[in-house]
Design brief:
6-stranded parallel beta sheet
Amino acid sequence: MRSALDRFPFPEMAERVWRRYYLPGGKAQTVAYQTLPAHAKDLPRESQELCIVANFVEVSLARHGHPNPVGINYLEKIQIPHLPSIYGAMLAGVDYILMGAGIPLKIPGVLDTLARHQPATYPLHVTGAHEGDDCTMTFAPRDYMECDLPDLTRPKFLAIIASNTLAITMLKKANGRVDGFVIEGETAGGHNAPPRGKLQLNNLGEPVYGARDRVDLAKLRDLKLPFWLAGGYGSPEKLQEALASGAEGVQVGTAFAFCQESDLRNDYKRSLLEKVASGRSQVLTDPVASPTGFPFKVAQLEGSLSEQDLYLSRPRICDAGYLREAYRTEADGIGYRCPAQPVTVYVSKGGDAENAVGRKCVCNALLANIGHPQVRGGKYIENGLVTSGDDLSALTRFLPPGGIVYSAADVVSSLLGDSRRPPL
């Protein structure tokens, strides 16, 4: 991180972030992480700077040591940090911006504007907003620049979609160039698009997807833009199937999430791969776990929030707040609420108590997944909630005989059908 900060073009800003957050020797396990200012429409300068620097560092480190393109994936639903975050990624030379979990119609125009270091705007969705309410976020790069810079390279923009309708909408209504699509089916890990039509649940309580939720690839090809297929495509057979359908390639998540190089906690990784090896792994699509309202894929794992008793024993608290909903207050302002926060607080902000049932703090859980759990009172440590695609059980194709450890290179070799790879 220090080496990446040394490459940041605005050294005074980098030094402010370093002085504020760096702990020589690291944080003790019983000490809480600093709580960041909660995201709000009018972000304070400190938060804006942190978004710029953090995204620069992530992309800079990802690009280091190789000539290959690097992309970064944002959720449209986490709108407030978009502008400074994207600018920081572009300062680091990010090649692709990918975005789903919403309809990112305004992102192409943002990329065009930020590439010239010009002020960019983005509409914040505010529940209950009235016509004429100020719901526009603005970010002016030159308010943060410490020196003049040449224009930045505009990254390519890929919209993550789950329907032909959304693809056509992006092309017709986006305020700039859309460079392609990632077609993410309901078997993919993380957030899934809700099924179209009336919600129906199977006997495990999972949403049921039907023919209306399938993308017509023939119609997609007619749009003459490159696309990639995601969700259950982590095998050489599915890769070839995708290429035969006209796709540029595939998006693979689950196979890389559980390889030895990933930052998923080793204890979670080991336990789930042991389940895979013994044929006991299970992934359920939880329709209510995520505060976003999108179904969320959850790997069933002891010691994680997939266990109902552990979920119920967790104090409901919202201190990260990335998935909060903006709403219009009775005083004509903008407030923020989350169905995973204490129910009484959520209801006091106009939320429906029924909407809070089963909601989990995905923000804290995902940080715990990668070994950065928040600590409360020196004792309570946040537990994770591991997400995975439906093809978790298919990871057996990468496991060596009698083992549960495999590498990212093993995944690539398998997907490409490398004949030098020994049979498993």
